[in-house]
Specification:
Shape: elongated
Protein name: Secreted protein
Keywords: Membrane, Transmembrane, Transmembrane helix
Order of helices and strands: HHHHHHHH
Number of helices: 8
Helix content: over 70%
Oligomer: single chain
Number of strands: 0
Structural class: mainly alpha
Organism: Streptomyces amritsarensis
Distance between the termini: 55 Å
Length: 180
């Protein structure tokens, strides 16, 4: 075997090995994002029109999340929020639409106190998705019912469901539990 042939074979082998390493690295990164974001990964792939764009978006969410000062609540504040949640639930029978609006407000206040920006709904979703990706469908469903209830277009059963959905996110945020 000539030296030129040997060099070409080594270069080809090196390129194949580098391509394999790159493929494995990209696959591991994709798997990590899927594990971290749960159903939010697939939703973002659909919204962004492909995995590459979705992964860029999800990594940007992670970077933004790293800049947030998310903090755990002291036991006393957790107890106060739990009591406030109980009050909201107790009033549901008499005022279901009002209770859903109060649940939304309570979740927003809890998010704010924990350090999540709460300026606009889409931003809340993006920020929550990093640690609570599996709970976002609950939040989306509850928010949708809340919006429809403002115009009187939600049934009592939908309002009850919204309370259950809000509670799922509320409990995660309150206990500092992540939905991974």
């Amino acid at each position: 075997m000539s030296t030129t042939t040997l060099v070409v074979a080594i270069v080809i082998a090196a390129v194949v090995v580098l391509a394999l390493i790159a493929t494995l690295w990209l696959s591991a990164r994709r798997r990590r994002l899927r594990d971290r974001f749960g159903p939010e990964y697939e939703r973002t792939v659909q919204e962004e029109g492909g995995a590459r764009a979705a992964e860029r978006d999800l990594r940007a969410r992670e970077q933004r999340h790293e800049q947030l000062d998310i903090k755990e609540l002291p036991a006393e504040r957790r107890r106060e929020y739990a009591e406030a949640w109980s009050d909201v639930q107790e009033h549901f029978v008499d005022r279901p639409e009002t209770s859903v609006a109060e649940a939304d407000d309570l979740v927003s206040r809890l998010m704010d106190e924990r350090g999540y920006p709460t300026a606009e709904y889409e931003g809340r979703l993006r920020d929550l998705s990093v640690e609570h990706g599996r709970t976002l469908d609950h939040y989306r469903a509850a928010h949708d019912v809340k919006v429809r209830s403002g115009g009187g277009r939600a049934t009592t059963e939908e309002l009850r469901g919204a309370m259950v959905h809000y509670r799922a996110l509320f409990e995660e945020l309150l206990t500092d539990r992540r939905s991974r």
